[in-house]
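worker-3 :: picked 60s ribosomal protein L34
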Amino acid sequence: MVQRQTVRSHHTYRTRSNRMVKVRTPGKNLVLHNAKKRGKLPKCGTCHKKLLGIKMARPADFSRMKKHNRTVNRVYGGVLCSGCVRDKIIGAFMDEELKRAEIGGKVD
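worker-3 :: tokens ->
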């Protein structure tokens, strides 16, 4: 016969945040453990691709992580992907060149 399980925590409703997992102990008993929600990979702010090199975690766990797990060593690391950073840098450079060309044309 299957061993019955009782929820030992104060919150007994079966919600997404209160998920229970059956675990068999070394003494061959089944007990219920609370399972935390899985984290998601952070996404790029502009193109919404997954950011590689950054760990998956829930927001509270993410804030407690070490800095080298939260970012990559690049400008906008952990916020934008490398392609978007490249486009941003090239766009800023081209804007500066355009301004210089306009100023140079007016002086002559």
